[in-house]
Amino acid sequence: IAGITQAPTSQILAAGRRMTLRCTQDMRHNAMYWYRQDLGLGLRLIHYSNTAGTTGKGEVPDGYSVSRANTDDFPLTLASAVPSQTSVYFCASSDLAGGYNEQFFGPGTRLTVL
Amino acid sequence: AQKITQTQPGMFVQEKEAVTLDCTYDTSDPSYGLFWYKQPSSGEMIFLIYQGSYDQQNATEGRYSLNFQKARKSANLVISASQLGDSAMYFCAMREVNTGFQKLVFGTGTRLLVSP
């Protein structure tokens, strides 16, 4: 069982370029999330999706967009990257139906915007 | 206002000793959940333990236990018999149920270093 996969593992990107971070889960979780992790700030929620076809804004959504065409995939797009978007990006998923609803995290994507 | 506060940027403990990592939280929601995650140097986030706001007993998972003091709004993680592999960042997080959406708010983390 792979859990959550993210691609790419790392990327260096020129400012102004468009970039899509990919996230796929095989746990059939209904909810998915994107976080960014910056030193000294912990993880901050960018966007979320409670179910396929719906998305919502988190704490720091500006400059990012998401889509949820199906249960498994939740790509994050930076339309025009800026240096302040240099960060480690984590995708996560959870099953809202039961248990602790703990979130399972992918391995992260390290993005550097120059 | 910060909803999750971890006041210890770094902690040191000797192998086989116990260590407590502090976490205080702020919420007006009567229903909430508290989580601890471990992030080793490899970067992945690993779920450790969960405490629900209505749980009567403190949560335990192997060497991890959660010292939940609801009136004080604290949810400290206790690691017993520390091992070298426990060296990592530890994040406290709170789930709020707000308009049907379950959101996790994270603290800034505590870096734990276990020495031989």
Please write out the topology.
The complex is a heterodimer of chains A (114) and B (116).
Chain A: E1 4-7, E2 10-13, E3 19-25, E4 31-38, E5 42-49, E6 56-57, E7 64-66, E8 76-78, E9 87-94, E10 104-105, E11 109-113
Parallel strand pairs in A: 2-11
Antiparallel strand pairs in A: 1-3, 3-8, 4-5, 4-9, 5-6, 7-8, 9-10, 9-11
Chain B: E1 4-5, E2 10-14, E3 19-21, E4 24-25, E5 32-39, E6 46-52, E7 60-61, E8 64-69, E9 74-79, E10 88-98, E11 101-106, E12 110-115
Parallel strand pairs in B: 2-12
Antiparallel strand pairs in B: 1-4, 3-9, 5-6, 5-10, 7-8, 8-9, 10-11, 10-12
Main pleated-sheet profile of chain A = 7 strands, mixed
The helix-and-strand class of chain A reads mainly beta
CA gyration radius of chain B, whole angstroms: 14 Å
Structural class of chain B: mainly beta
What order do the SSEs of chain B take from the amino end to the carboxyl end, as H and E? EEEEEEEEEEEE
- Strand fraction of chain A: over 45%
**Major sheet summary line of chain B:** 6 strands, mixed
Give your account of this protein's structure.
The complex is a heterodimer of chains A (114) and B (116). Chain A is 0% helix and 47% strand. Chain A is built from no helices and 11 strands. Chain A has strands spanning 4-7, 10-13, 19-25, 31-38, 42-49, 56-57, 64-66, 76-78, 87-94, 104-105, 109-113. Chain A is globular, with a radius of gyration of 13 Å. The termini of chain A are far apart. With 116 residues, chain B is mostly beta strands. Chain B contains no helices and 12 strands. In chain B, strands 2, 5, 6, 10, 11 and 12 form a 6-stranded mixed β-sheet that branches. In chain B, strand 10 and strand 11 (101-106) form a beta hairpin.
